[in-house]
Amino acid sequence: MASTTALPPTVGFDLDMTLIDSRPGIRACYQALSERTGTHIDADLAVTRLGPPLADELINWFPAERIDEVADLYRAMYPAYAIAATPALPGAREAMSAVREAGGRAVVVTAKHEPNARLHLAHLGIEPDAVIGDLWAEQKASALREHGAGVYVGDHVGDVRGARAADALSVAVATGPCDPAELREAGADVVLTDLTEFPGWLSDHMNGRDNGGRPGYSPAARA
């Protein structure tokens, strides 16, 4: 009988560019923010570097003393411009289902403003067991630990850092701004092309199978 690897009680997922393609909605919101404030924002450039907190992007376009004010305005405008325009990424629903079918729990831990994160998930019919927002990179470790996450899935090197800070397995998907080489260099344990590969990886992981030779999988040794 094959040996098995126990499923962690919880699998965490990032949101932007992991579960959802938020570029169209965020682009539309930045364009509307630019019109509202009379400040130039290169929305096409901004959506190429999603992941870090909103303030990290706004500082490129607004003086430091206006960041809090503009961030509040952006978040207030966001539901009208970003929710309907944002689709789920391929495999997002199936990845959540795979965790549940395996007897686990799925939680979303994201840097996005939590109320807006919840709006995205509700609009797309994706129902995690918990949603925790407003956490970036190593800050995510607190929520991952609180929920007992043994795996964290994300698209950014910041997500890799968050997983490692929580002593969780880092599963990276190359659907965001960071390419596979960057994700591996940051310390990702596994790099997938996208979430369509996640159910197969999860099955292999639970059953202790080595994925090293399987296309799309790139396990990296933990430091």
Describe this structure in words.
With 223 residues, the chain is of the alpha/beta class. The protein is built from 10 helices and 6 strands. It has helices at 23-37, 43-46, 54-58, 67-82, 92-101, 114-124, 140-146, 157-165, 180-186, 198-206, and strands at residues 10-13, 105-109, 130-132, 149-154, 169-173, 190-192. The chain has a 6-stranded parallel sheet with strand order 3-2-1-4-5-6, sandwiched between helices. The longest helix is centred in the middle third of the chain and has 16 residues, at 67-82. The chain is globular, with a radius of gyration of 18 Å. It starts with 9 loop residues before the first strand and ends in a 17-residue tail after the last helix.
Could you provide a short overview of the structure?
By secondary structure, the chain is α/β, with parallel strands linked by helices. Helix content is 42%, strand content 12%. It is built from 10 helices and 6 strands.
